[in-house]
């Protein structure tokens, strides 16, 4: 492994710019957004340079490391603040900085009339710096710093318009849900140290080869809990829909391309833990299957265009989590879908923002209709992302999602049928709700108010959408051609073209099945939503009502997490007050009572003291007489 002195610039550039914009305050209002965008583009340039440098080396020398300083040295715990750029982390570096820069450009126009635009861009760059630290740290402890930084940045960005109480509550909800997941990451790090005496990836990997199954399962379960919080997976998924309260560029950057994929990165980076624990893999697969269906079902009932896309993100991350539990090659396909999803979902979120921008911030799709005629660029770019997420060949999702479905079926037996069938069902539901979004927004007759004047967005907004649409077309082919990504990730995840040595279902058969169910789902949505009322009907099926309530996920959290937590907290407070504080108060009370008695003996009267002396002499003489008698 070679050393590099340039890795720190990837983090330092956006972090410095964020601090500068916040410290300068209003003095940077006129140029802060341009400065932040140029810095993000510079970080992308550094990432491209490092990627080319990696290509100029072979084997182990492709990975690079940089030690910044000795961070912790306490007893047996020794941790350096070091960075690691390898075949896995460079994928995230390019995605974070590349898509992040496009979103910066888009935000220049989108946030044009916001008086706090400079602060918004400062938060964006802080987020990028934290996300880069997360994927570049060479140990779980370094990763944890970036992990927490991302949590803080998301809180600031989701609640950017915190003058609206609903938005402030949404930011708090996301923050708290993520903190629950963070407990899992903290415990995983602690277990690693107690079991292996190390928290670096290399140290934990070496220790995992001879660790007990119980320890590996515990670490894997805690890492999965962390991933569930950050990536909005069951049972910590409820925050993602509410997080759409933030500005639309936030939804594109954090909740489509980067932050919500951190859980996928964590599991993939920890592949040596999950490969060694079949129980941990079962947990991962279970969470992935539940969430991909959960998000898809919720997406069918949303009239808010951003919440429909958020439910879609939850479902697509579920596919990635499922893939990470399917063995070595599954990691590669999870990352492939993560990268393609970064293009088409970010593009669709920006498209949703473009629609809202042209519709006076209206978010209800039932009040759209026929916008393709007035917003052709937005409609086309959104449509290309739509075809990509459906997995229609030759668009990006076809290459990544079909591979996950194929690998699921190739598990064999009942397990393969269940996992592959669930993935296929999710594809069909995805086709239904995404077609619903497209039909309600861009097709049919207009349903907006006469005072509205929908129009195409400026080039600063549709330019990044066009670039992302190109990625929605080409990224899947480029990543899969000749097994490009699988071969690239081989040193990190031990992937192989053999797909786990099994091919129980031919790729063509899987593609035909997937395309068939996609056509059915899309066709049903077109028939159902050719005409639609402006107000959602109340006389709907019980299933639709449950989906509108997000499958009661908030009620579930309230019953399983909030109320038990409140009860536990109340019990701890009562114990502290009555037992711990009560013991302290008892000591004070006893001293006070004894003092009151003793104080009466010290009254200052000579006759009292003489009497006490007489009584004392009498008692002493009496004792002496008894003893000598």
Descriptive notes:
This protein is mainly α. The protein has a domain at 559-628. Helices cover 72% and strands 3% of the residues. It is globular and about 120 Å long. It starts with a strand and ends with a helix. Mean pLDDT is 92; it is low at 497-501.
Structural class category = mainly alpha
Shape: globular
How are the strands ordered across the major sheet?
1-2-3
Tell me the number of helical segments per DSSP (H or I, 4 or more residues long): 24
Percent strand: under 5%
Summarize the amount of helix as a percent range: over 70%
Q: Main β-sheet, in a few words?
A: 3 strands, mixed
Short summary:
The chain is mainly alpha-helical and 629 residues long. The chain has a domain at 559-628. The protein has helices at residues 7-24, 32-55, 87-110, 117-136, 140-158, 165-196, 201-208, 213-230, 239-242, 248-257, 262-269, 271-275, 278-299, 305-324, 328-358, 376-390, 396-409, 413-442, 459-480, 484-493, 507-528, 542-548, 553-601, 606-628; strands at residues 2-3, 64-74, 77-85.
Q: How are the elements arranged and paired?
A:
Elements: E1 2-3, H1 7-24, H2 32-55, E2 64-74, E3 77-85, H3 87-110, H4 117-136, H5 140-158, H6 165-196, H7 201-208, H8 213-230, H9 239-242, H10 248-257, H11 262-269, H12 271-275, H13 278-299, H14 305-324, H15 328-358, H16 376-390, H17 396-409, H18 413-442, H19 459-480, H20 484-493, H21 507-528, H22 542-548, H23 553-601, H24 606-628
Parallel strand pairs: 1-2
Antiparallel strand pairs: 2-3
Helix pairs in contact: 1-2, 1-4, 2-3, 2-4, 3-4, 3-10, 3-15, 3-19, 4-5, 5-6, 6-7, 6-8, 8-11, 8-13, 10-15, 11-14, 13-14, 13-18, 14-15, 14-17, 14-18, 15-16, 15-17, 15-19, 15-20, 16-17, 16-18, 16-19, 17-18, 17-19, 17-21, 18-21
């Amino acid at each position: 492994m070679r050393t590099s002195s340039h890795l720190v610039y990837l983090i330092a550039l956006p972090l410095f710019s964020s601090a500068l914009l916040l410290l300068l305050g209003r003095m940077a209002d006129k140029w802060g957004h341009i400065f932040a965008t140029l810095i993000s583009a510079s970080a992308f340039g550094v990432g491209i340079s490092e990627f080319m440098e990696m290509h100029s080396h072979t084997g182990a020398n492709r990975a690079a490391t940089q030690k910044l300083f000795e961070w912790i040295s306490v007893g047996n715990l020794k941790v350096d603040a070091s960075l690691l750029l390898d075949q896995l982390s460079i994928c995230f570096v390019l995605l974070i900085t590349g898509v992040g820069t496009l979103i910066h450009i888009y935000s220049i126009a989108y946030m044009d009339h916001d008086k706090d635009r400079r602060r918004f861009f400062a938060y964006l760059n802080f987020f990028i710096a934290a996300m880069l630290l997360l994927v570049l740290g060479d140990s779980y402890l370094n990763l944890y710093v970036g992990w927490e930084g991302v949590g803080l940045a998301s809180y600031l960005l989701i609640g950017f318009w915190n003058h609206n109480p609903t938005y402030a509550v949404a930011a708090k909800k996301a923050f708290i849900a993520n903190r629950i997941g963070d407990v899992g990451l903290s415990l995983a790090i602690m277990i690693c140290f107690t079991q292996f005496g190390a928290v670096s990836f290399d140290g934990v990997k070496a220790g995992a080869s001879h660790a007990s199954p119980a320890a590996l399962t515990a670490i894997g379960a805690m890492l999965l809990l962390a991933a569930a919080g950050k990536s909005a997976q069951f049972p910590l998924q409820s925050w993602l829909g509410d997080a759409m309260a933030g500005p639309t560029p936030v939804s594109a950057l954090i909740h489509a391309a980067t932050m919500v994929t951190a859980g996928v990165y964590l599991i993939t980076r920890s592949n040596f833990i999950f490969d060694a624990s079949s129980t941990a893999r079962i947990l991962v697969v279970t969470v992935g299957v539940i969430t991909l269906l959960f998000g898809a079902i919720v997406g069918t009932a949303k009239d808010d265009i951003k919440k429909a896309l958020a439910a879609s993100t939850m479902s697509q991350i579920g596919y990635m989590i499922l893939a990470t539990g399917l063995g070595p090659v599954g990691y590669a396909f999870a990352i492939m879908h993560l990268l393609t999803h970064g293009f088409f979902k970010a593009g669709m979120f920006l498209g949703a923002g473009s629609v809202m921008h042209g519709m006076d911030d209206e978010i209800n799709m039932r009040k759209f209709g026929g916008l393709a005629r007035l917003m052709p660029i937005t409609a086309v770019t959104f449509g290309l992302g739509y075809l990509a997420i459906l997995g229609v060949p030759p668009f990006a999702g076809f290459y990544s999602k079909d591979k996950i479905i194929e690998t699921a079926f190739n598990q064999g037996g009942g397990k393969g049928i269940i996992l592959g069938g669930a993935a296929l069902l999710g594809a069909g539901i995805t086709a239904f709700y995404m077609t619903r979004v497209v039909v309600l927004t861009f097709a049919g007759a207009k349903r907006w108010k006469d005072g509205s004047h929908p129009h195409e967005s400026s080039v600063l907004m549709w330019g990044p959408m066009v670039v992302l649409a190109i990625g929605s077309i080409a990224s899947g082919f480029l990543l899969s051609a000749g097994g490009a990504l699988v071969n690239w990730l081989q040193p990190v995840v031990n992937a192989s073209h053999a797909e786990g040595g099994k091919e129980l279902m031919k790729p063509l058969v899987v593609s035909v099945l997937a395309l068939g169910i996609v056509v059915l789902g899309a066709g049903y949505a077109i028939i159902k939503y050719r005409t639609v009322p402006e107000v959602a009907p109340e006389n709907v099926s019980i299933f639709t009502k449950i989906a509108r309530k997000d499958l009661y996920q908030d009620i579930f959290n309230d019953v399983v997490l909030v109320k038990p937590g409140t009860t536990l907290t109340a019990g701890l407070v009562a114990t502290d007050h009555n037992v711990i504080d009560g013991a302290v108060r008892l000591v004070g009370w006893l001293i006070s009572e004894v003092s009151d008695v003793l104080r009466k003996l010290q009254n200052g009267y000579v006759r009292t003291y003489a009497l006490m002396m007489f009584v004392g002499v009498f008692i002493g003489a009496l004792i002496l007489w008894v003893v000598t008698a």
